[in-house]
Design a protein that fits this description.
This protein has one domain. The protein is an all-alpha fold. It has helices spanning 2-21, 28-43, 47-68, 78-117, 120-126, 131-169, 174-182, 188-213, 219-249. The longest helix has 40 residues, at 78-117. It is elongated. The relative contact order is 0.17.
Length: 250
């Protein structure tokens, strides 16, 4: 019973915090500069990690498909098709979002949590600044705008990784792999993936900021808040992945 009480109490505090985040905005030019800073910190700095993971996953998917689809009845170009579908529908949105929840989410929770325990947030409140909006809103906007671009970037890098492994191992001719990339292409799958990533971006930043905004005490509490932020964000991403798939693809 206590678990459910704590769960709904946390949801209530989260909704209250989001109400503060999206109310009483400060000067627009201040937000514009902060959003650009957060795009660089949360998005652009994540591109190398996304690229490394995506290229190897694309290569592994193509290699596994080549081993699995060894049948005279299955055309070789299906390797390229399977790689594209896997990267587009699931990996470049959901899996990349979970990875970003670990990297970006823990960073947000630690940053805001440190400001909380060092009383920097209290100082902002004393000066009449809406600290929740000033600290959290630029992160949310930056992630919602840039994370879908990271998903597109992951799709492209992943398919390139599959092409490279195809060319080096000979599991499929590069021309057949490219044919598979074009086979039965449905543009809405890209839209579906980008919408999912935008939703996941909001989940990651808002939940991580919520846990970072609330700790009191010492640095140990900041570490616990970071851990809770990553775990909660990852679970919520999986739940919304199921919901969005049901709503948009069925």
């Amino acid at each position: 019973m206590k678990i459910f009480v704590n769960f709904f109490a946390a949801i209530g505090r989260y909704i209250q915090l989001m109400g503060k985040v999206f109310s009483r905005p400060e000067k627009a030019n201040i937000y514009y500069r902060r959003i650009l800073i957060e795009i660089d910190a949360l998005g652009i700095n994540s591109m190398p990690l996304v690229a490394i993971i995506s290229i190897f996953i694309g290569a592994v998917i193509a290699l596994q498909m080549g081993i699995t689809l060894e049948s005279p009845f299955i055309p070789k170009f299906m390797i390229g098709y399977a790689t594209r579908e896997t990267m587009t529908l699931e990996f470049s949105s959901t899996v990349i979002a979970i990875i970003l929840a670990g990297k970006v989410g823990s960073n947000i929770a630690s940053e805001i949590g440190t400001m909380r325990i060092t009383e920097q947030i209290d100082a902002l409140e004393i000066m009449g600044v809406n600290s929740a909006s000033y600290l959290i809103l630029p992160k949310v906007v930056a992630a919602v705008l840039f994370f879908p671009l990271l998903a597109l970037f992951s799709m492209m890098i992943g398919t390139v990784g599959g092409y490279i492994i195809a060319a080096f191992t000979g599991i499929v001719l590069p021309a057949e792999y490219v044919e598979g990339l074009h086979y039965y292409f449905i543009p809405f799958e890209i839209t579906y993936s980008l919408i999912k990533m935008a939703v996941f971006a909001f989940i990651i930043t808002s939940i991580s900021a919520f846990y970072g905004y609330s700790p009191k005490g010492n640095s140990l509490e900041v570490g616990r808040a970071s851990t809770r932020a990553v775990v909660t964000s990852s679970i919520t991403i999986m739940i919304f992945n199921l919901i969005l798939t049901q709503l948009m693809l069925t």
